[in-house]
Specification:
Rossmann fold; 6 strands; alpha/beta; about 270 residues
Length: about 270
C-alpha cells in the first residue's frame, strides 16, 4: 500500500495522516473524550428529507488492497501507537464493508431524487501550492519536491471519486485541498444554491476529513445523518468512536437508511 503523510493538526480528535487513496490515514492516538451526545439509532423523521443531499467525503479511486506489516509501519506511526493489525483491519473494513455500502447508499439516494455531491482530494497545482500548508509541509517532509509521489493533484489517478459510484451527468464532483471541505472548496456555495438543510454523509476518515467536514456542517447550521457502515477510519478501533464524537443528528446503518428513504412520500 502506497502511503503519503499529510495534514498534522493537533486537535481533540486527530494527529492525522493522509494516504494516496481513499483510506486517508488520520486518527487520534490519545484516549478520546466521552461522546457529547448519544447516538440516535431510531429512524429520523421523514421531514429531514426536505432539502436533503447526499455527500460522499473522500471515497476515492483505490489501488488493489494491500496490507502493512509491523516492519513496514512507518517509524512515526509506531511512535504514536499505530499497529499494523489495526491499520489492516481498517483497510479490510473499508474494502469489504464501507465501499460496497457506499454504492448502496448512493443508489438509494439517487432513487430518492436527492442531489448527489462527491468530494475528493485534488489540488489544482502540481506543486501543491493550493494545499493546506500543514499538509504540503508533510508531503515535502516525506517526499521532498518529487510531486509525482504526493498523490493529491487533480490529475493523479487516485485523486477522484471512486469509479464504482458511476457518477451521472448533473451530479456534483468537488475537489478539496484540506481535510475540511468547507474551508478548502466551494462546498458551502453548492449546498446553499441547492437549498440544502440536511446532509447524508458517508466516507472517511471519521476522525479526519469526514469528521472535520461534518464539524463545519454543524457550525453552518446543517442537520447531519451519518451512515455508519459506509464510513471508514485510519484505525478500525477508532472508527465508531469518532462518529460518536462528531455529534450527528442521526446515525443509521445502510439498511436503515434504505428503509427510511423508502418510507418517505414520493418526491
Amino acid at each position: 500500500m502506497r502511503f503519503l503523510l499529510c495534514g498534522v493538526q493537533r486537535t481533540r480528535r486527530t494527529l492525522p495522516f493522509v494516504a494516496a487513496f481513499t483510506l486517508l490515514v488520520a486518527t487520534a492516538f490519545a484516549a478520546p473524550p466521552a461522546p457529547t451526545s448519544p447516538t440516535i439509532r431510531a429512524l429520523p423523521d421523514v421531514s429531514l428529507l426536505q432539502n436533503c443531499a447526499f455527500v460522499s467525503v473522500d471515497v476515492q479511486e483505490a489501488p488493489p488492497r494491500s496490507h502493512v506489516t509491523e516492519e513496514t509501519v512507518p517509524k512515526l506511526w509506531k511512535s504514536m501507537g499505530i499497529t499494523a493489525t489495526d491499520v489492516n483491519a481498517a483497510t479490510d473494513y473499508a474494502y469489504d464493508v464501507a465501499f460496497p455500502n457506499a454504492v448502496r447508499v448512493a443508489d438509494a439516494c439517487r432513487a430518492a431524487g436527492l442531489p448527489m455531491i462527491f468530494i475528493h482530494w485534488g489540488s489544482l497545482f502540481r506543486d501543491g501550492m493550493d494545499l493546506d500548508p500543514t499538509t504540503r509541509a508533510e508531503f515535502i517532509g516525506q517526499h521532498g519536491l518529487d510531486y509525482s509521489k504526493w498523490g493529491h493533484s487533480i490529475g493523479d489517478p487516485y485523486a477522484r471519486p471512486a469509479s464504482f459510484f458511476k457518477i451521472r451527468p448533473g451530479e456534483y464532483v468537488i475537489p478539496k485541498t484540506a481535510q475540511d471541505a468547507f474551508t478548502s472548496s466551494n462546498l458551502l456555495y453548492v449546498l446553499k444554491n441547492l437549498g440544502v438543510k440536511t446532509i447524508i454523509f458517508i466516507g472517511g476518515h471519521t476522525g479526519a476529513c469526514l469528521g472535520r467536514t461534518a464539524d463545519s456542517a454543524k457550525k453552518n447550521g446543517f442537520r447531519m445523518i451519518c451512515v455508519d457502515d459506509a464510513t471508514f477510519d485510519a484505525r478500525q478501533s477508532t472508527r465508531r468512536t469518532c462518529i460518536d464524537q462528531t455529534g450527528y443528528d442521526a446515525v443509521l446503518t445502510t439498511a436503515e437508511l434504505e428503509q427510511w428513504l423508502k418510507s418517505a412520500p414520493a418526491r
